[in-house]
Specification:
Layout lengths: L4 H30 L5 E10 L2 E4 L2 E5 L4 E6 L12 E6 L5 H9 L6 E6 L15 H23 L4 E3 L2 E3 L3 E3 L3 E5 L2 H15 L10 E6 L11 E9 L13 E7 L17 H18 L9 E7 L7 H7 L4 H6 E8 L7 E6 L6 H17 L2 E6 L13 H5 L5 E5 L23 H20 L19 H11 L14 H13 L1 E9 L4 E3 L4 E9 L2 H27 L1 H8 L5 H5 L1
Parallel strand pairs: 3-9, 4-5, 5-6, 6-10, 13-14, 13-15, 15-18, 16-17
Antiparallel strand pairs: 1-10, 1-21, 2-3, 2-20, 4-11, 7-8, 11-21, 12-14, 12-19, 16-18
Helix pairs in contact: 1-13, 5-10, 5-11, 5-12, 8-10, 13-14
Length: 587
């Protein structure tokens, strides 16, 4: 039996049209299914992860980087399960007791996102005049942040017992991030608060906001390097004098450690010390450039790394000296946190105050301080030679029996990894005048020691002279340091900042050398310090199901209409009719 060609040709276009319609609807269904959550990106935010590190193999900080949970606020109902919730906590509203409770009792959390005021953003350079209320608020925020940082990374970390480190573990089993307040994230938080207050927190059922950070698993950084930089200003040696000239060392540690490595700029600790050292190198290079004013002392300038890690860089730098050089050091002055004091600086020493060298140094500094209108105090702390833990940088010198002192605004020695450039140590809290006065104190005291002018009211670095302290120079370097995170090992050997320090010393001193060392194996750090946070507005499941029902009904109606108009009602009915059995077809 032959088919009618006319009939076949008339059916083929209709069948093709029908198949195309079916394929189009199938594609549409797949698109709808993939978009079932109907997520609208609300905003994208830069976030900074809580530091992850180990001490002697014991983990500290946050161990996770990936985040994918709904957003919540501190207004949640009592008893609510927060294991799949990321709490957004503005530092302005921080309940430190709540955070302590959740961390100490290891309660389950999906994650923490702390919102920092813009005053702590090193990219925010606004310098508007502040009211008394704003100054009080700023100081309050700083106090709160210091307490929060201690809780997250400083509480229960190594304490010294005898000659050993006693380790207490403090590890967070969920991601912890920091971000800065802005209009977008403030609007998101306001919506989240309203939902929480109304008793409808964000869940897969109710919808809300979802916070997503797609980050690789943090990896251990192998053999982190530390870089020490030194420069010399050689003194004037008399003809025929076989003796080696004495040396005065001026030292400052330049790297930092903080809760969030990508935000740890350490404007005061120890940006202020680095700025002071560079300006002192510049001032004495002017004196030593003229043979008539070159002193009979060598000046050694050292910018050391590994400061937060038990001054590991200073330890290795000093052991690179030969015995003759170490013996030539008359004394060393270490500069640490000198940028936010008012009326008093402190000289910390390891040798007893009755020691002749210590007495001479202190009297020289006290005389100059009195002339400049402030006070200098003396703090003595005995060290244990056999204990590897040191509190101040000068103690690394003292262990080698070199006379040394630390000049600082701090009255007590910081604990390990504390007061080393955290979130609260920003440019907004630096007093440039304090740094200028500190530089004048050190410069005048050292110069009078070199030229034998102790006790005389002589200003070598007087204002309005060619040897005056250069405030714009100080400000420019302070600005650079205050926007440059400097946490080892994220500050590599050839980092532009390290190269900038080297070049600056080369401009003012001679025989500039760079020493690369490996950080003590006791400390282990991990990468993944910064990420992008995507905030999505997610519709509820109920809404999704209702929408799918409406769209499904629409597709069925559309499909029915297309079949009827292209093939007729009989063909539509035949689609749902049970096909005849094989026996019937054979018959």
């Amino acid at each position: 039996m032959q088919s009618n060609p006319t009939t076949m040709s008339s059916k083929n276009p209709r069948e093709r049209q029908m198949l195309e319609s079916i394929y189009s609807m199938i594609a549409l269904v797949f698109i709808l299914v993939t978009c079932v959550e109907l997520c609208d990106a609300a905003t994208v935010v830069d976030v900074y992860r809580l530091i992850q590190y180990d001490i002697s193999g014991v983990p500290f900080g946050s161990r996770f980087a990936t985040l994918n949970h709904h957003a919540g606020s501190l207004h949640f109902a009592p008893g609510v399960d927060l294991s799949r919730t990321v709490l957004i906590i503005p530092v302005r509203e921080l309940n430190i007791t709540f955070v302590k409770e959740y961390i100490s009792q290891r309660k389950p959390l999906g994650g923490l996102l702390f919102l920092l005021p813009q005053m702590f953003n090193f990219e925010n350079r606004e310098a508007a005049t502040e009211s008394k209320y704003q100054i009080r608020e700023k100081e309050l925020m700083k106090t709160v942040l210091v307490e929060l940082e201690r809780l997250l990374i400083h509480a229960n970390i190594p304490e010294t017992v005898g000659s050993d480190f006693t380790i207490f573990e403090l590890v967070l089993e969920y991601p912890v991030y920091f971000a800065f307040e802005d209009d977008d994230i403030d609007a998101v938080l306001a919506d989240v608060k309203r939902s929480d207050v109304s008793g409808q927190p964000a869940t897969a059922t109710t919808g809300g906001y979802k916070l997503v950070v797609s980050a690789p698993e943090p990896k251990r950084i192998a053999s982190p390097s530390i870089t020490n930089i030194q420069g010399w200003l050689p003194g004037l040696k008399a003809d025929g004098d076989p003796n080696q000239l004495p040396t005065i060392a001026i030292v400052a540690s330049y790297d930092t450690f903080g809760t969030a490595p990508a935000l740890s700029v350490g404007s005061d600790s120890n940006g202020s010390g680095v700025v002071a050292l560079l300006e002192l190198a510049r001032l004495f290079s002017l004196l030593y450039s003229n043979p008539k004013t070159r002193g009979r002392y060598n000046l050694l300038f050292g910018l050391t790394s590994g400061g937060p890690y038990n001054y590991n860089g200073t330890h290795k730098w000093l052991r690179s000296f030969d015995q003759r050089l170490r013996e030539s050091i008359d004394y060393a002055i270490c500069l640490n946190s000198i940028g936010s004091w008012d009326n008093e600086l402190l000289i910390h020493v390891s040798k007893p105050p009755e020691n002749a060298f210590i007495k001479q140094i202190f009297e020289g500094f006290s005389t100059v301080a009195e002339e400049l209108g402030f006070e200098v105090g003396l703090k003595h702390k005995k060290i244990n030679i056999s204990n590897p833990r040191v509190a101040w940088e000068h103690e690394q010198f003292s262990k080698l029996r070199v006379t040394a002192a630390t000049l600082s605004e701090l009255s007590t020695a910081p604990e390990l990894l504390e007061s080393t450039g955290g979130l609260s140590d920003s440019r907004h809290f630096i007093n440039e005048t304090a740094i200028v006065r500190s530089i004048k104190l050190v410069a005048e005291s050292i110069a009078r020691h070199i030229y034998g002018c102790q006790g005389k009211n002589i200003q070598i670095f007087a204002d309005n002279t060619s040897l005056a302290v250069n405030a714009p120079y100080i400000r420019s370097w302070l600005d650079l340091l205050s926007k440059t995170p400097r946490v080892v090992p994220f500050l590599t050997k050839n980092d532009p900042f390290v190269m900038a320090l080297k070049k600056e010393l080369e401009d003012h001193t001679h025989e500039v050398n760079v020493h690369h060392e490996v950080l003590d194996g006791m400390f282990t750090l991990y990468d993944s310090t910064k990420a992008k946070l995507n905030i999505y507005q997610v519709a509820s499941v109920t809404f999704d199901l209702l929408l799918l029902l409406v769209l499904g009904s629409y597709l069925i109606i559309l499909f029915t209409f297309l079949v009827i108009t292209t093939r007729g009602l009989d063909d539509l009915i035949s689609l749902f009719r049970r096909p005849p059995s094989r026996k019937v077809k054979t018959a």
